[in-house]
Amino acid sequence: MALKATIYKAQLALADMDRGIYGDHNVTIARHPSEADERMMIRLLAYALNVPADDKKGHLEFAKDLWDVDEAALWHKDYTDQILHWIDVGQPDDKRLMRAAGRAERVSVYSFASSTPVWWKAIESKLTRAANLVVWQIDAAQSQALAKLAERSMQLQVSVQDGTVWMSTAADSVEITPRRLTAGD
């Protein structure tokens, strides 16, 4: 018998001063049985950092990457089903990233393991043609601290200023500073 996803709900109060985006977002996350809290919270962070200011060009939504290899962790599709932004988390291989770069206008990766520099060094030269790709490194200690905020029902305040993110609950707060590894556009 197949294991089912665990449903998490998050209320995000977003104040992104870098992009001028403010608002409340209620999201539902289907957590795959093999997914750890850390990865799920990185997906939630990626959502907060990439949610569009409005819905005029479609919605940013959680996809089913752990169930279907042809899907991203998150994607922003327009109303014609064109992929505007493909977002992966972890350390996808170069072939997956090149396929994503061909399918979407923009591709972002949020890598959070301590082995990120080794992974990136091994594939960086294979991705030079993917001008629409940006890779971000989240410090492993920061992502592990972020995982501790995970609950089945979450109320999170997310503040972004000068490239630094503060994700807070009523009881705790985590500072995250994503580091850009690529030049992309």
UniProtKB/TrEMBL annotation:
<dbReference type="InterPro" id="IPR038590">
    <property type="entry name" value="YaeQ_sf"/>
</dbReference>
<dbReference type="InterPro" id="IPR009822">
    <property type="entry name" value="YaeQ"/>
</dbReference>
<dbReference type="Pfam" id="PF07152">
    <property type="entry name" value="YaeQ"/>
</dbReference>
<dbReference type="InterPro" id="IPR011335">
    <property type="entry name" value="Restrct_endonuc-II-like"/>
</dbReference>
<protein>
    <recommendedName>
        <fullName>YaeQ family protein</fullName>
    </recommendedName>
</protein>
